[in-house]
Design brief:
It is globular, with a radius of gyration of 14 Å. Strands 2, 4, 5, 6, 9, 12 and 13 form a 7-stranded mixed beta sheet that branches. By secondary structure, it is mostly beta strands. Helix content is about 0%, strand content about 55%. It is built from no helices and 13 strands. The protein has strands at about 5, 10-15, 20-25, 35-40, 45-50, 60, 70-75, 80-85, 90-100, 100-105, 110, 120, 125-130.
Length: about 130
């Protein structure tokens, strides 16, 4: 049975940092695309960052570029999201996802940025106060 468990959610002030972690069991995160999504109040779930199995290409939503970093620890079978310079707009439930489909674009394969991943965690809340 595949299980993804997120941790690290917190309430912080604007400008602060939070590191989220997602631990997998019953599944090897390095075998396929992994991603972090978020869903704020009244918003659709959106991809924040994705990573290919070989780490050759990562995707970041425009709103988080330069502030968030996705990383994977294969020894621990975890995928983390380091979030810096947090803004109130970053307030959301954050979800870890694994085994997303491929998308072919501009001569290369990318991890899907849609909410069509097979495995999901239960989410962890990040609240940023201004």
């Amino acid at each position: 049975q595949v299980r993804l468990v997120e941790s690290g959610g917190a309430s912080v002030q604007a400008g602060g940092s939070v590191r989220l972690s997602c631990a997998a069991s019953g599944y090897t995160l390095s075998s396929h695309c992994v991603a972090w999504f978020r869903q704020g109040p009244g918003n659709e779930r959106e991809a924040v960052a994705t990573m290919k199995p070989d780490r050759a290409r990562t995707y970041y939503a425009e709103s988080v570029k330069g502030r968030f970093v996705i990383s994977r620890d294969d020894a621990k079978n975890t995928v983390d999201l380091q979030m810096n310079s947090l803004k109130s707009d970053d307030t959301a439930m954050y979800y870890c996802a694994a085994q997303g489909p491929w998308r072919y674009r501009d001569g290369d394969f990318y991890c899907s940025e849609g909410a069509d991943y097979k495995y999901w965690g239960q989410g962890t809340q990040v609240t940023v106060s201004s």
